[in-house]
Design brief:
The structure is a homodimer. Chain A is 25% helix and 25% strand. Chain A is α+β, with helices and mostly antiparallel strands.
Chain lengths: 395, 395
């Protein structure tokens, strides 16, 4: 029976142990797992069985790092201080090994499958499934001559896409952050539900949303040996720049032609937008401002110009991006939406970097939208809010 | 910079350290992770950093359980004996905590995100991406009055689905095994590539494949407290039966109507098939044989009649499923394909249970296809082969 046991384990899926107080299982839990629990105040209880471990630490990436306490039954437990609403990545460090908690679904972040809890935001329904028409999220594969590989992307099609075969739709290219992948915007970000709800409310135009894999290596380029490369070193920065330059070519030479020939898009710059979070925002600025023939709307969610935001340097509107910011009237005519956002609780260098870019744009008379998400960090609750606002202004 | 570091970690994505010998990174690895490595003989090298751990064991669910060895640098390593080709789930047991290896992508199995390595099968290209037209895998959500919840399913649409808007397609309902979920058939099984390649070769008819979430709890039914329920106990079996009965109603009353109203199916029994692996095979037998008005083709992959296969009881063709097997000629007219398969290396009770059912069907003169996958266990390589053969005989 050893393996057939597998056929039964899962039946915990329809069963939970009873909970007391306001603690309820996080919606990110695997079926049948009581833990993690979240209460109305946003406190999180975590539990894992590890009878022979000497030390376990819970590592919330944008939150508390707390030691768990061993119980007599071999389980380790801890209750965190309150966390703000939203999705919080975490890992467990078990005797020095950083691993995911097997009690939650896996969310790709930090370049690995990570754990997460969801702290509900009272009254917010815009990012959860509602009784409205739903779009589909489609997995597609396209061959890129730039990378010489098949690449995987996710494409949201709006609710009426299959029933209105004569309609064509504008397209938003929406990028994940560093260490995440093309699944982040739907699994962590709930982008499909945000669009469904926004479209149903008449606040967004029906649109296609393309979520691509944001890393690339040019075909034939040798694999870099990064074994001894220091984190944040010039070699690491060079690898980043090479990847983003290859991704820029992939988007403009492979992905956009594939999308426009596969989906009923309106294949012109007026109906094409790009936005991204963190690293994806940096990529968005580089790709859109270098290709204004392809894009007319630009969104940077806690990430924008890579050479400015983190360096603290100022925007020189005369020289940046071949002088595109030097003529505000011409810019306004060409770029229908320039959107910048950051959470008020983000790390200071990011918050100040985005604010400084905002001030530079004001000084240069470049029209744009600037939004600060109150009380949120460099995390998905900020980017859900960003997407809702950005999408409602598009097209 | 603490969190912005995240923006850079990933650049390992385009970089691997160099390997020697025939060991190569498993295709299941996260980007930038050298380990696990697999060599031409099927041996697997695993490595994890855990400087303070006292004991780490690698637990291949259908393979070796081996202790890892601590190295002076704080990493633990091990090389397994050769594994047969295919995808192998595993976990690491770190000082008593069973967790996934952060170096591989997560695959949902055993009711949690698990690790896996892929040992290539020399010469087999039928389950990998090829330069042929590709279908899409679409995420859809449907509301089930049976469960009172929104339910998530994946739907494969064949390559010409969007370009041939006047064509309608037959549909295969394809179920995962116990402890897995609706993502298993594409992520672990590569069902979409198997269909793409089979259709391109002219060996399968273009078809829609519906992959649903195979657990259900009826609306309003209280959550069972399973905390102290023993594994394999009568209470556990009862929970299984309740779940499958609710899933049967969900498939027939909610899922099929949703699929037929959302996709261009041929919405009749002659163009509807169901198959599943392990628990999904048991569900398939129950659902199709109770609803032959809805299905004409039936596949059991390492799983068939739940009450027979594991109990060792014999099929009584006069009484089973209201006597549907009592008239071989009538059965043959009604059921266009009855397909059974098992791997030669599966656990004895499963292998013998399926063989016994096969012999019972022979004795009862019930026409069917019986296939034994040589050298494979209760694992995905068996089910990939099953799907390829089964799909080529459909419709």
């Amino acid at each position: 029976m050893k393996r057939l046991g597998m056929a039964m384990i899962l039946f915990a899926s329809v069963c939970y142990a009873q909970q007391t107080g306001s603690f309820k299982p996080s919606e990110t839990n695997v079926w049948g797992s009581d833990y993690p629990l979240v209460d109305d105040a946003g406190r999180v209880q975590i539990r894992i069985k590890a009878p022979e471990a000497a030390k376990i630490r819970v590592n919330f990436w944008s939150g508390p790092k707390v030691d768990m306490v061993k119980q007599p039954d071999g389980f380790w437990t801890v209750t965190t201080p309150p966390l703000v609403p939203g999705l919080h990545y975490y890992t467990l460090i078990i005797d020095g090994a950083e691993v995911a908690d097997p009690n939650t679904q896996a969310y790709f972040g930090g370049s690995k499958p990570a754990s997460a809890v969801e702290v509900p935001e009272p009254g917010s329904t815009y990012y959860s499934i509602q009784n409205v028409p739903h779009g589909q999220v489609r997995e597609v594969w396209y061959f890129s001559k730039v990378t010489g590989t098949w690449r995987h992307a996710l494409v949201y099609t709006p609710p009426d896409y299959d029933t209105q075969p004569n309609l064509r739709y504008p397209a938003l290219y929406l990028q994940h952050g560093g260490g995440e992948d093309e699944t982040g915007w739907t699994r962590q970000g709930k982008a499909n539900f945000i669009l469904d709800n926004c479209i149903a409310a008449g606040e967004c135009k029906p649109m296609i949303v393309v979520m691509a894999y944001g890393y690339a290596r040019r075909a034939g380029r040798p694999v870099r040996d990064m074994t001894n490369v220091e984190f944040g070193s010039p070699e690491m920065m060079k690898a980043m720049q090479e990847s983003t330059a290859a991704f820029e070519d992939d988007v403009t030479q492979a992905l956009i032609p594939f999308i426009d020939s596969t989906f009923r898009t309106q294949p012109d710059r007026n109906h094409r937008a790009m936005a991204g979070l963190s690293m994806g925002g940096m990529q968005t600025f580089q790709i859109t401002l270098n290709h204004l023939d392809l894009f007319s709307c630009i969104g940077g969610f806690s990430g924008a110009d890579g050479s400015l935001v983190l360096s603290g340097r100022s925007l020189d509107p005369k020289t940046a991006y071949n002088g595109v910011f030097s003529d505000p009237a011409a810019f306004a005519e060409k770029v229908h939406l320039l959107w910048l956002g950051v959470g008020t609780e983000e790390p200071e260098n990011m918050r100040e970097g985005i604010r400084k870019l905002h001030r530079s744009l004001l000084e240069a008379n470049i029209g744009h939208v600037y939004y600060e998400s109150p009380g949120t960090d460099h995390e998905w609750q900020t980017w859900r809010r960003d997407l809702k606002d950005f999408a409602s202004r598009l097209f």
